[in-house]
User: Fold this.
Amino acid sequence: MALVETGSQVETSPSTVELKEEVITFPSGLVGCEQWKRFRLVSEPETEPFLRLESLDDEQVGFLVVDPFVFVPDYEFRINDNDSADLRLAGASNARVLVILTIKDNPLQVTGNLLGPLVINLKEKLGKQLVLGESTYSVRHPVYVSEPAIGASQ
Assistant:
């Protein structure tokens, strides 16, 4: 089964509360961090739309994550049959897509890893980090795009 994930097909807001204190298992771990398999999502109203993905296997490990459709509304990728089976996904309505953020010294230089999205089956509490091999997306896609001030020279 091939699913196409787009901003219009993925529910984002309600799932934050559902996953807040529940364990999400990534059976294969994360890319380069296979030893960390159990996580929880933590949502805090003052930092929305950003969430923390905290490792339950190593309390010193955590990631800032966000729904990629917040900053790339037309983000789209295909989930192959094997990944869909690993996640036990029956359809896009049970999926939550997040991307890991990289924070720089300047908070306006935050980037999101669109090439390695996290897909979570909300019903089964299973997650997997995909690697979009044939994609034009970047591992360092800017989250904030500053517009030049009116009248500023370009």
About this structure: Confidence is low (pLDDT under 50) at residues 1-20.
